[in-house]
């Protein structure tokens, strides 16, 4: 404004409009430089916000993982307590087995004593019992019969004693094997549980470190965003941005570099101030004539005005054209936002962080992608329909 005032004074003084034209040309050039700088900064804001949202998602994921790990620690502690209870029960069982083994060992000792005595007796009479001599030494037939029964009982008793002795020895060995197997099993289980718990605790520690790292990244991104927004604010104060004039956008050098893009946006701007958002609208002549559009139908209609036929739903549009990065965004690209669903809203990028679309609260309007609601909802999907 100061430059314009000075230029007017110059005309009054010298009567020459040439100076005014020169000053206005310099002002336009200066504003163009500022616009280009702001465009780069605003793209940086968009990219930074996407990265910030990604970090927030990662923090949310790691918090969920930490929650799962903490639950695993609780569950594992419960299993350890259960195992300790089982160990205590098994130790009682082992003690009972040891008592049984002690009883069996006592029986074995007694039987060994009996067998030793018999062995001594055998040695005293020559190392064996001559049962024939016992029978022939009977004094009568009745005595003979008695001696036959006695010898048979003695032989059977000796055989039963030896069999029982061997069976008891085997029983002791079996019980000892069971006890040892039980002890080894419990010891292995305890070692495994302790190792598992150590791994879970280590995983928790790693997750906590990752969460701290992500939180530091988040703070760094927030600082970068704040810096970019401050830079943009400084540049914005250097020019008059009290209102957005559609005519200014139509004449922007960013748009006229591509005639098709310029025509596309010029057609779309005509509906600003005389349209309404209608879900499912914009798909028949009545809706179009009366400015009744939803977001995807408006985008489809605008491209149809430059003889480019595209779909009328966000599901189709998100797979239309060529995907480009935020840093490569140019006027005429279509941009997507996660509103009531993923890719639920679509608009036409204008440059300088602005986009044109049929917004639910205003109808067809220009909105700022680098601040507030739309910055938060922009998901980074950018498709190019019109190539350079």
Core attributes:
single chain; 388 residues; alpha+beta; endopeptidase fold (from Nostoc punctiforme); 2 domains; six-stranded antiparallel sheet; two-stranded parallel sheet
Set down the secondary structure blueprint:
Blueprint: H1 2-14, H2 18-124, H3 131-136, H4 141-236, H5 246-250, H6 253-256, H7 259-269, E1 276-277, H8 285-289, E2 292-293, H9 295-304, H10 314-317, E3 322-323, E4 334-337, E5 345-351, E6 354-359, E7 363-368, H11 372-377, E8 378-384
Helix pairs in contact: 1-2, 2-4, 7-9
Could you state the order of secondary-structure elements as H and E?
A: HHHHHHHEHEHHEEEEEHE
Shape: elongated
Structural class: alpha+beta
**Main sheet: strands, sense, barrel:** 6 strands, antiparallel
Number of domains: 2
Taking Cα atoms only, what radius of gyration do you get, to the nearest Å? 48 Å
Number of distinct beta strands: 8
| Spatial sequence of strands, sheet with the most strands | 3-8-4-5-6-7
Mean pLDDT: 75
Poorly predicted regions are 1-24, 250-256
Textual characterization of the structure:
- The protein is α+β, with helices and mostly antiparallel strands and 388 residues long.
- It folds into two domains: 153 residues; 146 residues, endopeptidase domain like (from Nostoc punctiforme) (endopeptidase fold (from Nostoc punctiforme), Alpha-Beta Complex), CATH 3.90.1720.10.
- It is built from eleven helices and eight strands.
- The two termini are 36 Å apart.
- The N terminus is likely disordered.
Short description:
It contains eleven helices and eight strands.
């Amino acid at each position: 404004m100061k430059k314009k005032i000075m230029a007017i004074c110059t005309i009054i003084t010298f009567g020459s409009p040439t100076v005014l034209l020169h000053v206005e040309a310099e002002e336009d050039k200066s504003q163009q430089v500022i616009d280009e700088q702001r465009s780069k900064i605003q793209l940086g804001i968009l990219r930074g916000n996407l990265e910030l949202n990604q970090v927030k998602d990662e923090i949310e994921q790691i918090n969920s993982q930490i929650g799962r790990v903490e639950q695993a620690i609780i569950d594992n502690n419960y299993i350890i307590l259960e195992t300790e209870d089982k160990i205590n029960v098994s130790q009682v069982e082992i003690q009972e087995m040891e008592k049984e083994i002690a009883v069996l060992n006592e029986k074995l000792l007694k039987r060994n004593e009996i067998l030793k005595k018999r062995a001594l007796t055998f040695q005293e009479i020559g190392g064996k019992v001559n049962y024939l001599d016992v029978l022939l030494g009977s004094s009568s037939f009745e005595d003979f019969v008695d001696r036959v029964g006695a010898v048979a009982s003695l032989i059977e008793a000796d055989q039963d004693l030896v069999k029982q002795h061997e069976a008891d020895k085997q029983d002791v060995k079996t019980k000892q094997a069971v006890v040892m197997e039980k002890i080894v099993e419990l010891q292995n289980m305890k070692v495994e549980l302790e190792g598992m718990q150590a791994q879970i605790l280590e995983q928790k520690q790693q997750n906590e470190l990752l969460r701290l790292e992500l939180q530091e990244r988040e703070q760094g991104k927030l600082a970068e965003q704040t810096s970019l927004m401050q830079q943009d604010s400084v540049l914005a104060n250097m020019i008059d941005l009290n209102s957005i004039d559609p005519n200014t956008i139509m004449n922007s050098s960013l748009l006229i570099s591509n005639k098709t893009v310029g025509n596309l946006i010029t057609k779309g701007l005509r509906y600003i101030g005389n349209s309404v958002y209608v879900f499912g609208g914009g798909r028949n002549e009545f809706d179009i004539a009366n400015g009744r559009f939803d977001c995807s139908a408006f985008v489809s209609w605008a491209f149809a005005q430059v003889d480019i036929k595209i779909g009328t739903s966000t599901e189709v549009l998100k797979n239309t054209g060529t995907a480009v990065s935020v840093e490569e965004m140019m006027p005429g690209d279509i941009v997507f936002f996660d509103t009531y669903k993923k890719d639920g809203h679509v608009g036409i990028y204008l440059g300088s962080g602005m986009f044109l679309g049929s917004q639910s609260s205003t109808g067809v309007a220009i909105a700022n992608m680098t601040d507030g609601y739309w910055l938060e909802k922009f998901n980074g999907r950018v498709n190019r329909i019109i190539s350079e």
